[in-house]
Amino acid sequence: MAKWVFLGPPGAGKGTQARRLSIERQALHLSTGDLLREGMEAGSEVGQQARSFMEAGELVPDDVILDLVFWRLGQEEKDPDVIFDGFPRTVGQAEGLDQRLMEVGDAVTRVIEFTLADDLIVNRVAGRLICRKCGANFHRDFLPPKRVGVCNQCGSAALYQRDDDRPEAVRRRLEVYHETTEPLHTYYERQGKLVQLAADDDVDVIFGRLKACL
Ligand code: AP5
């Protein structure tokens, strides 16, 4: 089964595209950011460990992330197609994933690197709205909900802004991306698995490009 990795800076649209693709291909959408936020909401140990890192825009330690990802994969009865969204983010995580997949005779299929200029990222993240109930994702200007404050998908009035979408946390997330996550470009390029996807267009256009990359 396919194992796709979505790599790219915060706000590049990885989650938006991963959600669409997971529905169309019936693939597991495994977002480490979503899993960590669910853990924080539920007050789990992982959530408590992650909170201070996330609020500051720093990465959560590799051992916490790898345990979380392998735990989530272990919940599946069959081996599904998987979209890894926002994971791996360090070379250590990428090596951990390669090792784990190798142990079961599998490997990463393809890595899609979403590219977007930093100034566009700040606009996208600043306008993001998320539904607390179903996780659907909107943007005040680019992808507005039909009714202000109300989720199109589940109808609840629970749209909110993430704590780490504050300007200072976004700046730090971008720095961390350039310093720590960008080296994965070379890591996967050497494996011949990297495809770049220009993410500076309409959501539907990007979805078409994404499918051509897979
Ligand atoms: P995470 O939740 O993974 O956040 P991220 O990678 O920073 O990515 P985002 O969710 O901000 O952006 P996205 O690319 O998914 O964009 P989206 O589709 O939402 O991680 C958060 C934190 O958790 C990290 O900082 C870290 O602390 C921790 N963490 C997570 N994983 C970790 C790991 N592996 N290791 C260590 N720590 C980890 O789109 C953004 C906005 O733009 C939305 O409003 C959307 O509607 C809009 N939009 C999307 N596409 C378009 C378009 N084409 N045109 C216009 N608007 C668009």
What do these coordinates show?
The chain is an alpha/beta fold and 214 residues long. It has one domain (3-27, 80-213): Rossmann fold (3-Layer(aba) Sandwich), CATH 3.40.50. The protein is 49% helix and 15% strand. The chain is built from 9 helices and 8 strands. The protein has helices spanning 14-25, 32-42, 45-56, 62-74, 91-103, 118-126, 167-181, 183-190, 203-213; strands at residues 3-7, 28-31, 82-85, 110-115, 128-131, 137-139, 159-160, 194-198. It has a 5-stranded parallel beta sheet, with helices on both faces. Strands 6-5-7 form a 3-stranded antiparallel beta sheet. Helix 1 (14-25) packs across helix 9 (203-213). The longest helix has 15 residues, at 167-181. The protein binds BIS(adenosine)-5'-pentaphosphate (AP5).
In short:
By secondary structure, the protein is an alpha/beta fold. Helix content is 49%, strand content 15%.
Q: Flag low-confidence runs.
A: none
Order of helices and strands: EHEHHHEHEHEEEHHEH
CATH topology description: Rossmann fold
Based on CA atoms alone, the radius of gyration comes out at 16 Å
The main sheet orders its strands as: 2-3-1-4-8
Looking at CATH, the homologous superfamily is P-loop containing nucleotide triphosphate hydrolases
Number of domains: 1
Give the strand content: 15-25%
Q: Which small compounds were modeled alongside the protein? A: BIS(adenosine)-5'-pentaphosphate
Sheet of most strands: 5 strands, parallel
CATH architecture: 3-Layer(aba) Sandwich
CATH C-level class: Alpha Beta
How many beta-strand segments?
Answer: 8
Q: How would you classify the helix and strand content by structural class?
A: alpha/beta
**Inertia-based shape:** globular
